[in-house]
Amino acid sequence: MSTNTPDAGQVQKLTRAQLKELEQKQLTPVQRFFELIIMILPLVCGIIAILEYILIPDNSRNANPGVYLAFLIILVIVYNIWGWYTAYKRVKGDKVPYEKLRYRAPLFSALFLLLAGYDYLTLKTGILTQPFVPCLNFVANAFWKDRAMILECTIHTLYLLFLGYFSGCALGLVTGITCGYSKRCRYWVDPIIKFLGPIPTSTWIPIMMVVASSLFGGAVFIIALGSWFATTVASMTGIANVDKDFFEAARTLGATNRQLVFQVAIPHAMPNIFSGLTQAMSSSCTAIMIAEMLGVKSGLGWYMNWSKSWASYDKMFAALFVICIIFTIVTKSLEAVKRYVLRWQNGAEK
């Protein structure tokens, strides 16, 4: 008796895009209504934040109140334009922008509510005491007033960060790949890694302030040291964990040692290598802030310490927000490069 059941080998796997499209078709009218509510909710929360700032009386003096208000209005307008753009692309058949916005919409709603709550606790009620915890309008005014100095400090911080990070990562890649592929090199380098590894990067700062000929050079060394360690360990582990059968198959096909390293070992170790590069960036961001606060006479860390010494907490918070934005952009950029280089992984998962 024959059946119409297809063999397992004839069943085609659905891609992620096909699965999302199938799930979208299966949504009930109620679920579609809640989807629309989620997309509109950031606009509602943004208007709530604006009305909270305008309608509730201030608990303390608030100079130039329009700066923070303009910031809120710009955020709402940007989200509105983004929403109409994704709707237009969706009508044209491109659902990717809509899916990205749908994924981030709850976060944007929470952001507007967080801004409104913070403003209520500081400017409107004084539960968080000013000026030690300044309201967002104070921070926005401080940033705009000191924008030239903050820009100069930002450039110095980025220069110091990337100089130390790329120097340490470049040396770490060479060390890690060499030690991962060669047992002889690993024999000599592994004790050094085990000796320096447990020591936090910040521990070296007081030593560098005394030993280094310049504070800038000492800061570069500290950042590079942390980046070197993270990159070396990740690269060495990735190379060492490559399946030996790949090397044997490549040797059988006549591959040279150079081809074994660059065409077999490194491509298979790339996920580990990028994990090390990400960890190195995190270590560098921590080290640069500590170095600038303790010794280096420029940069955002120095600016925060200088503002605190003059009790200019609004300027200190402005620099803190700039630091968060910069490090978020740097981390996201590194993740974008990782996704591009390892795009074959996403293709394998479809």
Descriptive account of the structure:
- The chain is mainly α and 350 residues long.
- 79% of the residues lie in helices and 0% in strands.
- The N terminus is likely disordered.
Give the tally of β-strands: 0
The span between the termini is 36 Å
Assign the CATH architecture of the largest domain.
Orthogonal Bundle
What is the helical fraction, as a range of percent?
A: over 70%
Mean pLDDT figure: 83
Shape: flat
**CATH fold title of the largest domain:** MetI-like fold
The radius of gyration computed from the alpha-carbon positions, rounded to a whole number of angstroms, is 27 Å
Q: Given this structure, which CATH class of the largest domain is correct? A: Mainly Alpha
Largest sheet: none
Strand percentage, roughly? under 5%
Task: Provide a quick synopsis of the model.
With 350 residues, the chain is an all-alpha fold. The chain is built from 14 helices and no strands. The protein has helices at residues 16-25, 29-55, 66-91, 96-124, 136-145, 147-181, 183-196, 204-211, 215-240, 244-252, 257-294, 300-309, 313-341, 343-349.
